[in-house]
């Protein structure tokens, strides 16, 4: 997992819960990096898993809710850092349908070592997109948050349903429609 995902995560934890919380969750985790991350580095996803589980234990907020909130936060980082990419698309459905074949292909070049999910589109029209998320990291609530924020970016309202095809969240089908 790319370092920027860690640095921004700890930034969010500091903003929302304070610096002491950052120290606490690093302290509780068994981290090869010792909790010292750079945006361009690459670190084991197990480190992120531990940080999130410990944040959940400390705050009482469920893990999936924290992953979702982090997705919403990370979208703003992406939208600021990559405004040029967002500017290419005329609608949220067009943008989301391009993540697999265009956006993340470019991301792989910009962020060497990035671990990206796979999205497989099964249905698409102007107002509807059905696509299945695949990733061993099971960050489907992160995907959900990025999808919602993509609609907000275009000042549109979505209805997003999802269904865990695999119980561990490594394969999740999304049905996304624009209202
Ligand atoms: C300009 C737009 C985008 C950029 C620059 C971008 C970049 C990235 C980066 C750097 C990561 C971290 C990779 C790693 O952990 O090593 C990531 C992960 C991810 N991105 Fe994107 N992304 C963009 C748009 C989107 C959108 C719109 C979606 C919504 C479907 C999306 C879905 C995801 C998911 C779900 C992950 C987590 C990885 C996983 O599930 O295994 N991305 N992206």
From TrEMBL:
InterPro entries assigned: H-NOX_domain_sf, Heme_NO-bd, NO_sig/Golgi_transp_ligand-bd
Top-level taxon in the UniProt lineage: Bacteria
Coiled-coil positions: none
Pfam families, sorted: HNOB (PF07700)
GO MF term list: heme binding
Protein name, per record: Guanylate cyclase-related protein
Organism in which the protein naturally occurs: Christiangramia flava JLT2011
